[in-house]
TrEMBL record:
<dbReference type="InterPro" id="IPR023214">
    <property type="entry name" value="HAD_sf"/>
</dbReference>
<protein>
    <submittedName>
        <fullName>HAD family hydrolase</fullName>
    </submittedName>
</protein>
<dbReference type="Pfam" id="PF00702">
    <property type="entry name" value="Hydrolase"/>
</dbReference>
<dbReference type="InterPro" id="IPR006439">
    <property type="entry name" value="HAD-SF_hydro_IA"/>
</dbReference>
<dbReference type="GO" id="GO:0016787">
    <property type="term" value="F:hydrolase activity"/>
</dbReference>
<comment type="similarity">
    <text>Belongs to the HAD-like hydrolase superfamily.</text>
</comment>
<dbReference type="InterPro" id="IPR052550">
    <property type="entry name" value="Pyrimidine_5'-ntase_YjjG"/>
</dbReference>
<keyword id="KW-0378">Hydrolase</keyword>
<dbReference type="InterPro" id="IPR036412">
    <property type="entry name" value="HAD-like_sf"/>
</dbReference>
<dbReference type="InterPro" id="IPR023198">
    <property type="entry name" value="PGP-like_dom2"/>
</dbReference>
């Protein structure tokens, strides 16, 4: 039995359209006007608060946008609107449902993602697959506070499942391949921009299926 951990964004789910449209949708849902400056301020501040492990980074970033650009909206309402817009905008990466179903029969599956737990796990719930993942690890769980490729998040994942082998499946080279390998995982790289799942590391995949 292996413990197989999946990244979320670009691996299990992807956006219909691009993320700028999702963010714009959040402003519209909160009856606020969207401008490029407002979107840019949101992005910059979100990553700053996110990197600092501040509570509720999205609401804080929206609060800065409202202050600095005189936006007449509630930051909390904008943050809730963004989560709703994100949940409406996700779709499964083609091929992922059958791969997850096949692997879940024989292995313990987990999620290993950078992000806020409720948001990340909620996106997987939106595509109907959350129940397949027994171990759920997110960087912004207060008990973890480590972002891939930092050691702590991989160690948290390994501590959740007792397995002979640990495998990381993901789309991003540094967090999902290089970092995971350095911290005790075999890796499978998938490319969500391809029309179907790709797995350059066929040897690993062949031993799993
Ligand atoms: Mg990813």
């Amino acid at each position: 039995m292996a413990a197989i951990f999946f990244d979320v964004d670009g691996t299990l789910v992807r956006w219909r359209g691009d993320y700028g449209d999702v963010l714009a949708d959040a402003f519209e849902r909160a009856d606020a006007t969207v401008t490029d400056e407002r979107l840019a301020t949101y992005d910059e501040r979100f990553f700053q608060y996110f990197g600092d492990f501040a509570d509720d980074p999205s609401r804080r970033a929206f609060a800065d946008v409202c202050d600095e650009h005189a936006v007449d909206a509630e930051p909390g309402e904008l943050a809730e609107a963004l989560v709703a817009a994100e949940f409406d905008a996700v779709e499964p990466v083609p091929g992922v449902e059958s791969a997850v179903e096949a692997l879940a029969d024989r292995h313990t599956l987990g999620i290993l993602t950078n992000g806020v737990p409720d948001v990340q796990f909620g996106k997987v719930a939106e595509i109907g697959l959350l129940d397949r993942f027994d171990a759920r690890v997110a960087s912004h769980d207060p008990a973890i506070e480590a972002i891939k490729p930092d050691r702590g998040i991989y160690e948290a994942a390994r501590s959740r499942v007792d397995a002979e082998r640990y495998v990381m499946v993901g789309d991003d080279r540094e967090p999902d391949v290089d970092g995971a390998r350095e911290h005790g995982f075999e890796t499978v790289h998938v490319d969500a921009t391809a029309a179907d799942l790709s797995a350059p590391d066929f040897r690993t995949l062949a031993t799993l299926l």
